[in-house]
Write a structure and sequence with these properties.
Elements (H helix, E strand, L loop, with lengths): L18 H14 L5 H20 L9 H12 L1 H11 L7 E2 L8 H13 L24 E2 L19
Antiparallel strand pairs: 1-2
Length: about 160
């Protein structure tokens, strides 16, 4: 009789949208970043889905994407129908509030908080895509920062407010 415990199942972020929708979003990431390999665009898209799911699960946790993951979030938002459907499925419309880049505002703990929230939501984290804004090892077009409440989020971001899906 074995006493070994099975590891808990890890959620598949790609299943949050259809295969065709995923392919469309990944193609947008790739198109916006000439020379990017499709597998990298797909990794970025997958992390963006995990990020949105973590935000919906932890709406008051001041989560922020890395520059690289933000590229995927931008592409996801451009696909408005799948994005709205995703947010409805997750129970909260996750708004994007960009500001011009300013590395002096960077909160290094924000990325750690966000990765912990992604893990708590049941997903593995692709750590290579969660670097600080000064890291340019994965070149992407995204060039914005995200501000915490109240400056950047002047509406009710909670799951019970007027912006809930």
């Amino acid at each position: 009789m074995s006493t070994a415990q099975e590891a808990p199942a890890v959620a598949d972020a790609r299943s949050l949208i259809t295969g065709a929708e995923f392919a469309g979003v990944a193609a947008t990431v790739q198109r916006n970043n000439p020379g990017m390999a499709l597998d990298m665009a797909e990794r970025i898209t997958t992390e963006a889905l995990k990020f949105v799911a973590a935000c919906a699960a932890s709406p008051r946790s001041s989560l922020k994407p890395s520059r690289t993951v933000d590229e995927g979030w931008h592409a996801l938002i451009l696909h408005t129908v799948p994005y709205a459907r995703l947010c409805k499925k997750l129970g909260l419309f996750v708004h994007h509030t960009p500001e011009p880049p300013d590395t002096t505002r960077h909160d290094p703990d924000a990325l750690n908080r966000t990765m912990a929230a992604i893990t708590a939501a049941g997903y593995d984290v692709d750590v290579a895509l969660w670097k600080p804004p000064t890291d340019r090892s994965i070149p992407v077009a995204a060039e914005c920062e995200h501000t915490e409440e109240p400056k950047g989020c002047s509406f009710d971001c909670g799951s019970s407010g007027p912006n809930a899906a």
